Amino acid sequence: MKRLKNLILLSLSLVQIANAQTRTLPKSGFEQRIHEAVFAVRLIDTHEHIMSEKEALTSAADFSCLFTNYQQSDLISSGVAQDKVYNSFKGKDSSIEERWSVIKDAWANVRTTAYGRSVLVSAKDLYRIDDLNENTYNELSKRIKEAHKPGYYEDVLKKKAKIDACFIMEYNTTNPRDVVNEGNCNFRRFFVYDKYISFFGYNKMRTRLSNYGKDFTTLPQLELLIDSVFAQDVKIGIQGAKFGVAYYRTLKFDDVSRETATDVFQKMKADPDHVFSFEEAKPLQDFMFFKLLSLCDKYKLPVQIHTGLQTGSGNDISNANPTGLTKAFFKFPNLKFCLLHAGYPYGGEMAALAKNFPNVYIDMAWSAIISQSYTLRYLQEFIETVPNNKIMAYGGDSQTVEGAYGASILARETVELALTGMVKDGYLTEKEALDVIRKVLRENAISIYNLKF
Length: 453
Fold this sequence. Notes:
By secondary structure, the chain is an alpha/beta fold. The protein has helices at about 1-20, 30-40, 55, 70-80, 80-90, 95-105, 105-110, 115-125, 135-145, 150-160, 200-210, 220-235, 260-270, 280-300, 325-330, 345-355, 365-370, 370-385, 400-425, 430-450; strands spanning about 45-50, 165-170, 190-195, 240-245, 305, 335-340, 360-365, 390.
């Protein structure tokens, strides 16, 4: 037995020697070169909810603007009453002191989350405040107020975050360019617009189409109206579509016949005040989902679909499992599906889908401020399993430019750690790593969305 053990150890040592001899070891200083490459890339920001600069200039200009994004969810998760958080941070009625009193005890618990880290990054880099605490929140608020003037969007996004293009969700306006092109913020080609589609129920569709002055009484009329709306949006400049239905229902869509969908439509039309169960409404929703995908396919609009963690509290995470979309991938083989948020926590499923389907792409927007370690782990796994032209590593998914900036730093740091580790381990050469860095932070998004510069 001892002799067998010695033989096994000898064999393992020989394998290690052989591996060392066949690997190309990185040249000294590769860590610094990778760092410099990551932070030199001009980013393509694939996913944001940034308000217009005009709107931002009328919002609260104090430390609380750094909590406009997902930090409020962590405050609630830590135990702060939801209404207390929302009432304090909504509008400008509360004083700075009142807002600080809401978070001061919970901040010690929240500051260690990635959401909390992004606050500290923005405070330090943008406003030269090293920490947020009882002694600094007033000075931080003063500096934010001084900075919030016409032109600060361009300063933060283009100059400091080094972003060359930013995808913005279009909601209830017939002209998506109204979302950001207000005031003195002249970006023109900087913002790219996605059509946001949140639900497909009868009443929701009626509400959405009413924004366009449209109404319908039959399913064919509804389809024709949607056709015209899509044509109008494409003419205006929509370059993609985003589906956020995982907040409300499962991503498992079935291919429903027109007859079945028409039957559900007629029932809803006959009794619009009745609250239909999900099981009753699902056939029409599924039918409309595939109808909308067919229009995206027609106009060659890449589709972003929310997968994984939903913001807020008390959501059903199983709704957001990306494997539910498999039938859609089969039905529309030429449509580009960009699955958002690295599917957190369904990273393995995300990798399998992108590996198996040529039309499925991975978008890691938001994931770095959910968890850097998850993003690091799965970025390396994605590189190992998925062709690297199908991975996008940055989208801030924020309402404020401060949020977009903080997310950009955490995303860059994560890419740096992932690629440095893979070079150090010998999986990638330095040259391969530098190529991947450019792709995941910039070039892949340009190619997938056919952006022009």
